[in-house]
Amino acid sequence: MDYQAGSWPAAYWVVHKADVMSLGDNPRFVVTSLTEPTAEAIYRDLYCASGQDENYIKAVKNDLASDRTSDHGFIANHLRLFYACAAYNLIHSLREHTLCHTELAKAQPMTLILKLFKLAVRGVVQYNRQGPDQTVICNPVVQIAALKQPVCCAQFPVIFQG
Questions:
Q1: What is the DSSP string of 10-55?
Q2: How many domains are there within the chain?
Q3: Which of helix, strand or coil describes residue 155?
Q4: Domain of 149, in residue numbers
């Protein structure tokens, strides 16, 4: 379907998807100047992909605190945003290379932070409080090191030593 708003210089192709559900109607419209792909391809490959991009931005903002730019100076805010982006890259690399073929391969950043990093820190602190001669039953660092490396991770060295 072609549509031209009053302020638009030309008519554009409109892809319409209508979901009728028990909770109510859920119409979606995609306006595009593309003519080659099918309506289904435009919706699936462009519209839905942009929604996934929004989820990535939300993860960086909420889980890694990239929105904490309340300092009055540009450099401090720039550095905070840089750290949040660097943390996301590290987590993404961890998911792609080390956690592939595990249940955490597609986990949100906060899930990884809670399940891996915060537990590992608690385990090390607990170990240090008990003394070096006593064993810690639930030391997450030892548990992570005991995991077998997936096939895709064979080229990377083991980070944790048990």
A1: S-EEEEEEEEEETTEEEEEEEEE---SS-HHHIIIIIIHHHHHHHH
A2: 1
A3: coil
A4: 65-153
Q: Is residue 6 part of a domain?
A: no
- Look at residue 84 and tell me if it is in a domain: yes
Q: What is the number of H-type helices and E-type strands within the chain?
A: 6, 3
Note the maximum CA span of the chain. 78
Give me the residues paired with residue 12 across strands: 3
Inside any domain, residue 32: no
Q: How many CB atoms lie within 10 A of CB 43?
A: 16
Does residue 112 fall inside a structural domain? yes
Q: Give me the residues paired with residue 20 across strands.
A: 25
Model pTM greater than 0.85? no
The pLDDT of residue 3 is: 78
Q: Which residue in 107, 115, 114, 102 sits closest to 150, CA to CA? A: 102
